[in-house]
Amino acid sequence: MQSIRVPRPTTVASPSATPAWSRDLLIFIAFIAPNVVTLCVFSYWPMIRNLWLSFTYWDMIAPEPLWIGLDNWVEVLTSATFWTVLGNTLVFTVGSVGITIMISLALSLLLNQKRVGRNLVRAAMFAPAILPGSAIALVWTFLLAPYYGLISQAATGLGMPMTRWQNDPVWAMPTVILVVIWKTTGYDAVIFLAGLQGIPRELYEAARVDGANAWQRFVNVTVPGLSPVAFFLTVTSILSSFQAFDVIRVMTGGGPVFATTTLIYQVYSEAFVGFNAGRAATYATILFGLMLAITVVQIRMVEKRVTYE
Amino acid sequence: MNSVTFASASRISSKSTDLPRATSQMRASRLAGAIAAYLGLGLALVIVGIPTYWVIIGALKTNREIYTVPSTWWPPNPAWSNFPAAWAAAPFTRMYLNSIAVTLVSTTLKLVNATFCAYAFAYLQIPGRNLIFMFILGALMIPEEVTVLPNYLTVASLGYVNSITGLILPTIGSAFGTFFLRQHFLSLPREVIEAARVDGAGHLQILWHVVLPLSRPVLATLILLTAVARWNDFLWPLVVTSKDTMRTLPVGIFFLFTQEGTTEWGVVLAGTIIVIAPIIALFIVVQRHLVEGIASGAVKG
Fold first, then answer.
1. Which fold, B90-263?
2. Is the pTM of this model over 0.90?
3. In B, which residues are within 8 Å of A138 by CB distance?
4. Residue B262 to residues A116, A264, B67, B87, B265: CA-CA distances in angstroms?
5. Which residues on neighbouring strands pair with residue A56, listed in sequence order?
6. What was the ipTM of the complex prediction?
7. Which of B12, B112, B145 to mutate: most A Cβ within 10 Å?
8. Residues on chain B touching A36 (C-beta within 8 angstroms)
9. Structural domains in chain A plus CATH codes
10. pLDDT tens digits for B127-153?
């Protein structure tokens, strides 16, 4: 402890009956106040305000929002748009998370073998995860451009009809999902890889001694060993897929028509394209409710596993 | 050190027992496994490599080359002029400064918030602190995407639309960082902190001279994660800025694209590279630390 050069004179314990912690109370408040205040103003208060705004009509120009009770909720929940958007969110989430998890698991198994060049592959696959989504969306827009885009040229070379990928009502969603998979697979693979390396080597040795073949070792050692990591990844990926915005904004703008409008995109477009604060807040509250439900389920399942083990 | 030598010794011994057993059939299946593995690794490299390569040479192509089918895989006369053209088409100097300022200040403030808060929850025994800690953790469940409209209204009412302050303000609270650092602080040897306290060190001194020096790798990981997220942020900067000169880079290239459209791809791609290149350069330097930090944080947390 040489680094502490100036020891403060020890304060004499006060003879009065004040508890020991009261001396730390002020410094505790000083240490946590800035963070607590910021979180109150920019995390908690917005949720309350969203809920309140969802009972109003407001174009963000009129001086005051107009109270309209449950009108927004009735209107949103009975509209075809809401169910389309909810369906899109589900398709986007299941598609991007499911496929990413499978590919990244396979990739992590490859990266876990002692092969030449695996560090290069790991770094190359990881890189898209730290690049701006908007830049990646532009890269893919160029690759997918009709006629002169590399992928369009390859597709026509293989005899496929010319497709306007992200501008095609059928192809738009798969295209956006593909780009998100491309961006996130390396990140998930790195986390799977850490999980794989955390499985004790002795378990594999024991299975080998018992005569288990490679497949049996995978099913009986790797899969159970990885399941906590897989669970963690699935939940965090679902939550972050609900927040995926930049790729959709740049590649499709939520279209064509509503083909790639997810809940978060709908919040944005109701608020900042349609200037309907009440409806945007309604969608935001629904999105928040969904994410909260998933988080609660996650906490429940983690608790269950901890108690059973 | 002991465990390392032990592990490598066991690996050698298992290898030597394997070898005599290796029949030609086993050797063949091992070869097949190796071929499959390298095919897989090669495929992964191609899937990342080809788009990257295509964008780089695309940025060096003239319009005529870009829109000619079939495309050339190598531009005979690299059109370097796309880069100055991109720099002129959007206020890149200004956008770079905006991105740097927002990332630096936001990351610093967020980290300061997280550090003090985590210290308080790890080392200060205050009744009811667990309740307050739960309150902070609760903010983890509120993603910034959901708060974008009310935060816009708040920032607008403060008059910070189209300002660096507006870009930074809603991003400086830290729920994840507080949790992440508190976990680490709790894992530090208690005796060291007790010893410092007995020596008469105040909390600021303990934090600065004891806790932080013991937390360098964890802090580095947190700084990197925060900085990358801030640099790449899209939705909030898109919403809170409307002037060209206040945009950050990720939003700026989007507007470069909407302005130049699909008719000036060379310029748009050059702009994309201008945005990506520094991140890739930084990534190459910190790659190992970042990847391992994320992996260990995810698996432990």
1. MetI-like fold (1.10.3720)
2. no
3. 253-254, 257, 268-269, 272
4. 40, 27, 10, 18, 6
5. A67
6. 0.84
7. B145
8. 117, 132, 135-136
9. 22-67 (no CATH), 79-308 (1.10.3720.10)
10. 888 899 999 988 888 888 889 999 999
